[in-house]
Each structure stands twice: as structure tokens, then as C-alpha cells.
Amino acid sequence: MQTLALDEPGRFTFRPPTAPRKPEPGEVLVRAARVGICGTDLHAFEGKQPFFNYPRILGHELSVEVAEVGTGVTNVKAGDRCAVRPYLACGECLPCRKGKPNCCMKIRVLGVHVDGGMQEWLTLPADYLHPSAKLSLEELALVEPLSIGAHGVWRSGIGRGESALVIGAGPIGLAVVAGVRAAGATAVVLELSQKRREFCRKNAGVDTLIDAAGDPTEQIIAAFGGDLPLYVFDCTGSPRSMNASFRYIAHGGKLIFVGLYPGEITFNDPDFHKRETTLLSSRNATKADFDRVLKSLEDGQILTEPWIEHRFTPATLVESFPKLLDPEAGVLKPMVTWE
What we know:
Order of helices and strands: EEEHEEEHEEEHHEHEHEHEHEHEHEHE
Shape: globular
Number of domains: 2
Largest sheet: 7 strands, mixed
Structural class: alpha/beta
Radius of gyration: 20 Å
CATH class of the largest domain: Alpha Beta
Number of helices: 11
Strand content: 15-25%
Number of strands: 17
CATH superfamily of the largest domain: Medium-chain alcohol dehydrogenases, catalytic domain
Oligomer: single chain
């Protein structure tokens, strides 16, 4: 199996496979199995991804099969199928020492800062693998994006019986919806695409959906029983949406940016101040988030089969990748079979 590298924006090339590196103590040699394609990969292809340099082997949403374990490894064994937590932390900086390795100051994310899963073999620290005997390889590849949503929900502190507005029903928005529901809360979704609104209704357990066209404020108030919501998650990465989201927060509420925009976001300070808004960012995910998502998947609380509309081989991915940039294509989660 060849390696697929993004040499520069808009140009993939196949490279000869590299020989696998024998795992050192605490490491595991794994074979890539499935790789999910997400906004990070699309933005890298366009040349618009922050924290990125070329050439790079993409692939941070991945499932793997363990081939060999190094000495001292006890959490996985040869033959295990695993999800991969792709945020390699230094373990020494202040965030790491304070239990926040997801925002490590020297973080190395697979497929972003260092080469990722679009290659046959990877040697990884064993602690970053999450095994499951119940889940399929495709489900395991979706643990990472689901954990992104789970982390944003954990950051918010939303609890049972509460409700939230989720803006954007792409993969990360759906992951937030799943996290909100897992917390025992209710999600209302604001989304421009009719196709994605219908997907939420049929496959994500969302009863109240709002068209984002125009000014949706009155519809939001009606959906929340005459009040604005106390929790708003913006999952769009769109500056227009993110700027507007400050207007949808109830006084004393929380706004959580789960999506990322590589530029400036602005808001009216008096309006922000009078509401005493809590503004939170949410970056990556933690081991605890991965564990929670794995359990939810294994218990059948999250159904991911409808997410995957398109499946590719490495060769067909290269041919089709430019088409994935078209927002009208409506592709939710492309999945690459790397075996």
C-alpha cells in the first residue's frame, strides 16, 4: 500500500511505502484501516488550514489494527482494533501539567503537525489508542470527531433537563448534538441547508430545526419557550455565523465556539457585557472524552451508519477530493478504506 501525501495545496502524490518502525518501550506498531475526511483536510487541500505546513500526510480521524506492541504496553495487544487519539502532547508544558493536554503548547496533531494515517504503518504511543472489540472499523474512525463534540459539551457544563442551540449541522455540529443528548439535554439546531436539517430530523433525534436564512432570532425565542438559550454552540467555522451568535445568547448564558475560523471574530462589547456572556473555545478532545464516546457507541446511544455517505479507496479519493469542497455536494462524512 502506497503512502498518499499532500505535497502542496491542491496536489496529492503517491509515495512508495516506508518500512514500519519497530515499536520502542511504550509504543505500538499499527496498520491504518479507515480514515475519515473532515474540514481540516479540506482546508489543508485549499491552503487555508492554520497550524499547517507542507508536504503532509493527512489523516487524523482514523481506526487502526495493532500489529506489534513494545515492552511495557498493557492497554492493547496484537490484533486489537482501535480508535486513535491524534493529539500528541509533550506532557511537560503548563497545560499538560494542569491536565489539559488537548491544548498542549507543543502539541503535534497527526495529519496536521506530523504525518497522519494515509499510510500503511504508524508507530504511536500506546496511551493514544482506544481499543474496542464491539465497534466496526468505521465506527472507530468516527470516535475522534464525536469526541470533538463531546469535549465542547463538557466545556459548557450543560446538564440534564437543559437545552441548547447548536448552530451548524455538519459532522462537528452533529457530534455536539450527540453530546448534548448524552448529557440528558435537548438540542435545537440552526442550519442553512435543508438537506442537513432533514438529516437531523431523521437520524439525530432533533425535533426542532430552524432555517438559518435571514434573521432567525424570533424563531429561536419561540423554540426556547419565549427566551433566548442559555447555551449556544457554534460549529460552523463561519465568521458571519460566529459574529451573529453573540446575539442569540440569553443573559447569563454561555457561547461555545467549537468550529474554527482562521481570522478575526468581532462582537459588540456593550451587548456582550450587559448579558455577562461566558465565551468559551473548545480545542481537540481528551482521553476522558474518547472513553465517553466509545461507551456511548458501544451502548448503541449514537448511531453513525447514516453519517457515511461516500466511501473511497486512496485512488478514488484523489480523483474525487476537489468535489468534496463543493458545499452543495452535501457530503457529510467521506470515509477512506486504507487496508
